[in-house]
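Per reviewer request, we include the raw input and output of the structure prediction for the construct analysed in the revised manuscript.
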Amino acid sequence: MAKPELEFHLPAGAWIPGEDGVAGIWSQVLSQDPDSGDYTGLIRYAAGVDTSPIGTRIHDYWEEIYILEGDLTDIRLGATFTAGMYACRPPGMAHGPWRTELGVLMLEVRYTRAR
């Protein structure tokens, strides 16, 4: 199976609590392939969210992130990223933990193999 064919539309998916259990993080699935795990979605952090309790993240899939609005600080790097900035993370790349002052909205694309 592959992600579904979708023409422009307003996403109707529900905002669900983030998978890591940190309060104030929400995600919305835009499209997904349940067989491969390939995924496109939105992630929203409320103002003041800090992911320090879950520490640095490392995962086994490719991840691309584009910040649509707001701010995101990588506490480990001491660097703040803002709207219009982009990250491409291969499997095994360490990132985070994160903090946001104003809140942040991001587009996330995950896939399991190099394209």
